[in-house]
Write a structure and sequence with these properties.
This protein is an alpha/beta fold and about 270 residues long. It contains nine helices and 15 strands. The strands form three sheets. It has a seven-stranded antiparallel β-sheet, with helices on one face. It has a five-stranded parallel β-sheet with strand order 2-1-13-14-15.
């Protein structure tokens, strides 16, 4: 039986509208009640992972920012962080301004986001889903290395073109890949969910072969490969499916709950 589960959020434990089903919630709670460990392993920064602490059930350090941040879920004690270098972040901000690209910067206070939403309010500072104020001079707001930068394409069909433009801008300084139909991740060298999983497992005294990883996106590949058993959702990308040891039913059919019952609970 496995002792530690790492679960992606969007398209895995939660539907793309943010809903965590009762079946998934109950399976996560059963893992905790049985003495196991479970956490979220997501591309989201802490700011947008925090709402899921009330919807899902976790008792191990969170993996956020695709492994660039490992943080205890409720105390917010940071166990590991590798922020984006400030010059690269500011370069991406200028790209967002010049070409009207939707882009979000997770600031290092774990609370605030600097967001550009073209056609809406332009750049704003947002906290807990609420706009604090407009950011008419966004470069002046970005004075410290952010934990992460995420890009959003206008439509799924435009995602490849936006990805290519961002990759052209960052060159070999970062990987650019999709984590959902419209979300584009900018990932620094050395950052992966797999590396962060190794840190969390060591922190808890759990062996690699006692872990499972459940995910659906291209940014989950290292997680699926590192885990003792990798589980891809049936709605996963082809690359994620190829990296998995087992395919669970899709998120709409509570595949994460079925995987947890199969590997963590023995039901």
């Amino acid at each position: 039986m496995y002792r530690l589960a790492f679960c992606d959020v969007d398209g895995t434990v939660a539907s793309f509208d943010g809903r965590v089903s009762p079946a998934v919630h109950n399976a996560m709670q059963a893992v905790v009640d049985s003495g196991g460990w479970i956490t979220l392993s997501t591309g989201r920064g802490y700011q947008l992972t925090k709402p899921y602490l009330d919807r899902a059930v976790v008792n191990a350090p969170l993996i956020c920012c695709n492994g660039g941040l490992v943080v205890e879920p409720f105390t917010r004690r940071v166990l590991y962080v590798k922020p984006m270098p400030l010059p690269l972040a500011r370069e991406l901000l200028r790209l967002a301004v010049a070409e009207g690209i939707e882009m979000w910067f997770y600031l290092d206070d774990l609370e605030t986001m600097l967001e550009n939403r073209p056609g809406d309010n332009g750049f704003v500072l947002r906290r807990d889903g609420v706009v604090l104020r407009p950011a008419s001079e966004p470069l002046a707001e970005l004075t410290r290395p952010p934990h992460k930068v995420v890009v959003s394409a206008p439509t799924p069909e435009e995602t490849p073109a936006v990805m290519a433009r961002v990759q052209q801008q960052v060159g070999e300084r970062a990987r650019v890949l999709a984590s959902s139909p419209r979300r584009i991740e900018v990932i620094l060298p050395g950052i992966s969910k797999g590396n962060a999983m190794a840190l969390v497992a060591r922190h808890l005294g759990i062996k690699r072969e006692e872990t499972i990883g459940i995910g659906d996106g291209d940014n989950d590949v290292e997680m699926l490969e590192w885990a003792g058993v990798g589980v891809a959702m049936d709605n996963a990308t082809p690359i994620a499916r190829a990296a998995a040891d087992w395919i669970a039913p899709p998120v709409e059919e509570d595949g994460a709950a079925i995987a947890l019952r199969r590997y963590m609970l023995g039901w």
